[in-house]
Structure formats: structure tokens, C-alpha cells
Amino acid sequence: MKVSKQQKNVTLDPGFAGEIQRRSGENVFMCYQCRKCASGCPSRMFMDSTPTELMRYAQLGMADEAMKKNTIWYCLSCQTCSARCPADIDIAHVVDTMRIIVQERKIKAQSNKLPLFNRLWMTMIKFMGRAYEPGIVVSLNLLSGKPAKDIGLGMKMIRKGKLKLWPSFKKPFAMIKMFAGARRLKK
Ligand code: SF4
Ligand code: SF4
Fold first, then answer.
1. Total structural domains in the chain?
2. Could you tell me the CATH number of the domain that includes residue 90?
3. Which domain holds residue 160?
4. What is the per-residue pLDDT across 86-131, written as a single tens digit (0 to 9) for each?
5. How far apart are CA 43 and CA 74, in angstroms?
6. What is the pTM for the complete model shown?
7. 13 in helix, strand or coil?
8. Considering every ligand atom, which ligand is closest to the CA of 75?
9. CB of 41 shorter than 6 A to ligand 1
């Protein structure tokens, strides 16, 4: 069998599935590739690999392959996959765990914008208690060097009432406390 250049370059991490289980409590070896997770995923059309493929990569120890894809960043944490999985795997939790490992190992995603978006999103939730979409878009545009991107679309959505111009806050102090508690637990 001829081995492609891409296959030759795959580095295996035999401890990857074990690390996921240790940190999330989820056993990826329970997955038998039925594809129910992928078929119900609302973000599937934007992903490089399906959630099913992500589970397969984890089983095979293909850590880089799993974590360099945009899949983990396009996941909305909607839990649809977790609710549908016949093997009772909390796939959304596995994805969250991979996001943490990616940042710890400083693995570069194929698009730098996705981790940046995630960081901005979490910062906004931490300090405001809820998402403020115009703020995220403007910050993302400025930090990625395209300040005018989607401005027209954004204005149109604000005019139609689909986006709020001004931010609102929900228990920001409680959120800051919760984030600090999570950081302490991690240590
Ligand atoms: S639904 Fe569960 S068992 Fe089926 S492919 Fe997805 S993770 Fe695997
Ligand atoms: S939690 Fe993520 S992977 Fe699962 S269905 Fe929702 S968007 Fe897809």
C-alpha cells in the first residue's frame, strides 16, 4: 500500500485518549462510529472534520490531527451530540477538553482567528456576564488587521433589531468570581 506524504508526517500520541479521560471523565473508546453526533451537529457544515472523526482521531492518538482542525473552534457547545450519543459520551465536554489541551500545548490552529474569537468570547462573558456580539466583531476585526470587515452587514443587523448596539450586563461580579474559582481549581 502506498503511503501518502501527509500520512508519513502524522505523529501519534498514545496517551491522548487517556489524557482526555483523566481530564473530562469521558472514555472515547466507547465510541463505535455510529455518526449520530455528526448528523445532528448544527455547525457541521463549517467544520473540517465531523465530531465522529474527532472521536476517531482521539482513539487513534492522532492528537495534532484532531486539534489543528477548525472543528473544536466551530463547536457551539450546544450539547446536541452529547444528548444523541448512544454510547453516552459527553462529546461537547471532550471538545472543551481538547480546546484546553490545545492552548496548553500551544498548538497552532489552521486559522489563528478561531482561538482568538474564543478568547474574546470568554473574556466578554467573564466581565459582562453575557455575550456582546458587536464588541466581539469589532475587537476581532481590529486584532486581525481588518477593521472594516462586515461593518455594512453589522449596521444592517442593528437597523433591523437583530443586534443590540449597546451592551447589557448580567451579574458580572458573580461571573468574575466564578472564573477565579475555576482558575483556583485548575491549580
Ligand atoms: S454518537 Fe457517540 S458513538 Fe456515535 S459516533 Fe458520535 S461519539 Fe461515537
Ligand atoms: S456540541 Fe459542538 S460538536 Fe456537538 S452538536 Fe453542538 S456544535 Fe456540534
1. 2
2. 1.10.1060.10
3. 113-186
4. 999 999 999 999 999 998 888 777 666 777 888 888 888 888 888 8
5. 7
6. 0.75
7. coil
8. 2
9. no
- Ligand 2 pocket check: which of 36, 78, 94, 118 to mutate, most ligand atoms within 8 Å of Cβ? 78
Nearest CA to ligand 1 atom 3: 31
Residues 58 and 117 in one domain: no
Q: What residues contact residue 56 under an 8 Å CB cut-off, 6+ apart?
A: 31, 33
Does any ligand 1 atom lie closer than 6 A to the CB of residue 31?
yes
75 closest CA partner among 101, 107, 97, 105 = 97
CA distances from 143 to 88, 100, 140, 151, 164 (A): 39, 22, 5, 15, 22
Residue 149 three-state SS: coil
Q: Identity (one letter) of the amino acid at 16? A: F
Spatial distance between the Cα atoms of 28 and 87, rounded to a whole number of angstroms? 10
Q: Are residues 84 and 29 in the same domain?
A: yes
Name the residue with the closest Cα to ligand 2, atom 3.
75
Residue located nearest, by CA, to atom 7 of ligand 1: 31
Q: What is the pLDDT of residues 16-47, one digit of tens each?
A: 999 999 999 999 999 999 999 999 999 898 89
3-state secondary structure of 21: helix
